[in-house]
Inverse folding.
């Protein structure tokens, strides 16, 4: 089941000739058997994206990069969810201190 530790506004930059911006919430979840094939655990740096993005683009295996004051974290898309964005709990260890100034980019 989903573990909602906190919500965070996450602006995304979609890689394309013209840069397109979208926003969403990121929530933590417990990964398992992913929609993109393969099984992932809580220590894996993986993410799930909303159906609106998953159903319209080939996102399996693509990365979401979060940049903050403490550095950069890259998550791999492995799952689909109804809405927003989900990340494995291990991301929390990278975000506890550097919450300020966090920006998200998906190449």
């Amino acid at each position: 089941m989903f573990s909602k530790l906190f919500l965070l506004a996450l602006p995304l930059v979609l890689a394309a000739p013209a840069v397109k911006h979208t926003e969403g919430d990121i929530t933590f979840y417990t990964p398992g058997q992913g929609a993109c094939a393969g099984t992932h655990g809580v220590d894996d740096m993986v993410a799930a994206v909303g159906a609106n993005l998953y159903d319209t683009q080939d996102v399996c295996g693509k990365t979401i990069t979060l940049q903050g004051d403490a550095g950069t974290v890259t998550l791999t898309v492995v799952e689909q969810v109804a809405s927003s964005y989900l990340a494995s709990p291990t991301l929390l260890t990278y975000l506890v201190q550097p919450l300020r100034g966090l920006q998200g980019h998906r190449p």
